[in-house]
Amino acid sequence: MASTPGGFLTDVDTLLDLPGLQQVKQLRRTDKAVTIAGRWRGQDVVAKQLTSSERHWVKRFAHEVSVYRAFATTPPPWRVPRLHHAGRRLLIIDGLPGASPHTDRYPPRLPEPVVAGMIDALVAFAEWQPPPGLLSTLTTNWPARIRRYAAAGNLPGDVQQPLLDAVADAPLVFGHGDPLASNALADPGQPLVFIDFEFAGMYPRGADLALLGLWLGRHDPGAERRCAQIAEDGGSLHTYQAMRVLWLAREQRLYKSLFDVVEDREHRQWLDDQTADAVTGLRRAVGRG
Fold this sequence. Notes:
This protein is of the alpha+beta class. It has 2 domains: 15-94, Phosphorylase Kinase, domain 1 (2-Layer Sandwich); 112-285, Aminoglycoside 3'-phosphotransferase, Chain: A, domain 2. Helix content is 43%, strand content 16%. The chain has helices spanning 55-73, 112-127, 142-151, 160-169, 207-217, 221-233, 237-259, 265-285; strands spanning 22-29, 33-40, 43-50, 83-86, 90-94, 172-175, 184-185, 193-194, 201-204. The strands form 3 sheets. A 5-stranded antiparallel beta sheet has the order 1-2-3-5-4, with helices on one face. A two-stranded antiparallel ribbon has the order 6-9. A hairpin with a 3-residue loop joins strand 4 (83-86) and strand 5. The longest helix is centred in the C-terminal third of the chain and has 23 residues, at 237-259. The radius of gyration is 20 Å and the shape is globular. The model is unreliable at 1-11 (pLDDT under 50).
């Protein structure tokens, strides 16, 4: 079986083909990937196998592998798992201590240490200056996304330009890009750790906090207010407000197809109300409301 000088197996791309994997326990299965924990080469590891063939997820998976490799070259000042193996559809990283606080996109109210840990981790990301290269690359063409959302009717026409201005004027910082509770590891007495860096890169300052505040705020409005306050203290409240509008527009798009299958009127109404409030807040911020 072929391997690289660093020990990576060059012809292994599925869990079934991975030699010596022991004590396997499935951690998570989604429509795009399966993640397991186990022992491999005498170490605790986590392996993720991409199961989707969609171009978007293939691209995101390759990006995550590249991010872990970049972290190995230039370690950030927070803990990240070491990459042990990477193929086109399989990656293996250190199994770090701790467990995900919750698997729901909009989790119930989380313990205070977990909320504080998630916020602290995102603040630390934004304070880090990554080296030139992949980690300092803008993750999204935000003007193109704004125009696409506006054209599709997901954004009111009068906020398109304020959003474009807010994104264009915002300083860029390193961000996780997907700070779900399921992408975090909480271990009592230790700093919370984020994993799953599929969307990591440069974002407008406040973007990570706005997304975390949106997800946590569904059942813990105080957490959203804390995120907004930190953005305000850091001089990025306007960008935070703009990114909240954009994240809500994305959530509306993501959930639109689900509403046709799963009846969740309460959540749908909450999203509608949050969107209306966010748009009103943005209009006021630019003197249009």
